[in-house]
Amino acid sequence: MSEFVPATLQLYRQALLATWRSLTRNWLLVPAVVILAVLMYLVTGMAMALGMIGGLLLGLANAFVVGAFLGLLEQAVASVRTMVWRDLWDVAGNYFWDVITVGFIVWVPLQILELGMQANPYGPAVVSAVFLLLFILLNPVPELIYQGRSGAPLEILKDSYEFVLENWIEWFLPLAVVFAPFGLSFFFSMSSQSGRLIGLDFLQLLGLPFAVLSQWFQYLGLSSSMAVILVLCLTPVGAVLMMLFRGHLYKALTGSSRRQRLFQRRQSLGT
């Protein structure tokens, strides 16, 4: 344990430095998130009046937007070149089918579960527990789509499960630190919402930094109007930082084992 803690802190330090370098080279990710969010809100407004067809349209738009965002993240995490405006166009259609198929495989059983539990007095608790379990076991699915190269959707889900089992401490500790000041109820609330599409719903990806920033500004005692302005301005930046950090952390964790990181720590200390 005495070696594990500094080795893990070094892992986070490297991921944070890589995140900052990626942000400075790829600052266009921030306006890209704003553009994609506006697109999703426009499609959502249109879809509400179209019934079932609107729901299908919304699902297709979400897959397009999430796939494009993952394509931009792939370039930001893996490439050393500076992002240009044309890259926002070039990623159109990236990972569209991956998002559609993985999301569908998870969504259908959840819909059946929700319908089956409607008459059960313990139904909401069971559904929330399942959402939380999915939020944990399938949390790294976005990174697996654009970094894992697993191919088949079921392989992506299997690899996500195996990754979490092997790296659950290092992967979830930053999330625990972020949620710690707000208590477990805030975490359960966010995880039950995010668990529905395991990070493959664009507006839910924005929802996490939005909720955390709102809570922080509330604790700081800012006026509601000032807090709203700051949250709206900082949410795209927070979403980009969160996803870049996750991308670099996933890359580091899959590039080395826990034993290797401990060995490298000993080597750096000359022991």
Characterization of this structure:
With 271 residues, the protein is an all-alpha fold. The protein has one domain (4-269). Helix content is 81%, strand content 0%. The chain is built from twelve helices and no strands. It has helices at 4-25, 29-47, 51-78, 85-90, 96-116, 123-137, 141-148, 153-179, 184-194, 202-219, 224-255, 258-269. Helix 3 packs across helix 7 (141-148) and helix 8 (153-179) packs across helix 11. The longest helix has 32 residues, at 224-255. The protein is globular, with a radius of gyration of 19 Å. The two termini are 16 Å apart. The model has no long low-confidence stretch (mean pLDDT 85).
Blueprint (SSEs and pairs):
Blueprint: H1 4-25, H2 29-47, H3 51-78, H4 85-90, H5 96-116, H6 123-137, H7 141-148, H8 153-179, H9 184-194, H10 202-219, H11 224-255, H12 258-269
Helix pairs in contact: 1-11, 1-12, 2-3, 2-11, 3-5, 3-7, 3-11, 5-6, 5-8, 6-9, 7-8, 8-11, 10-11
List keywords for this structure.
271 residues; 81% helix; globular
The geometry reads as: globular
Q: How many β strands by DSSP?
A: 0
Q: How many individual helices?
A: 12
Query: Major sheet, described briefly?
Result: none
Poorly predicted ranges = none
Amount of beta strand: under 5%
